[in-house]
Amino acid sequence: MKEFxxxxxxxxxxxxxxSWQHLxxxxxxxxxxxxxxxxxxxxxxxxxxxxxxxxIIAAAILIDAIEIFKLVVFCVRGNGIAELRxxxxxxxxxxxxxxxxxxxxxxxxxxxxxTDFVFxxxxxxxxxxxxxxxxxxxxxxxxxxxxxxxxxxHSIAGFAxxxxxxxxxxSMKKKNIPFTYGIFVFFMGLAFLANTLLDYNYMxxxxxxxxxxxxxxxxVGGNPVIYPMIVIGLFLAYIAVxxxxxxxxxxxxxxxxxxxx
Length: 261
Hints:
mainly alpha, globular
């Protein structure tokens, strides 16, 4: 158990990015994520909203329980409460730790906007965390708390997004678009504040740290004002495109149903 938790440091040599252990771990997580989301989404698609919400509640409890357990382990094996400084839920992936519970336990327009937010960003967060975090497998063993907890929480984020889409739980109402943007801007503001106070790099607003943002960072020569504006602008554009594509598909489907009916 000490070895799994990394207490005292891992004695195992990390298997490495794109090793067969890494790829097997990723494919298993993605397979379970997609299968469960589609299976449960189809199963509850024609149920009432309260019944559909039970799955989101379970996802909210599970994702936060895993994250809290991980943070406790990090504090025990590291520098105590100071470990929280670099583990606040202020990356795109970790925002789901707050967004999914909001979607599960709130009501009204807050619930609708939060559900839409999870629907829009959950799958992106999941893919970025499961596939894009290959560097973690160079640093930690596959079967260790670092990679296991990260893989599971990102998988749950992706699962919640897919489930919401398949089950028809997303409202995606035009009137809620400002609220969805508001949630994102709020977290961006917190990330900017945390970066200033804690001298960190949440949401990669300071430097790209090996992410594809490196392209834009190089284009503007690392300008401390223009670069973060580009990062924020890309996310805002992503929300807009997601809504446009979803609404276009929905409109086309309704037109087909009207013709066939």
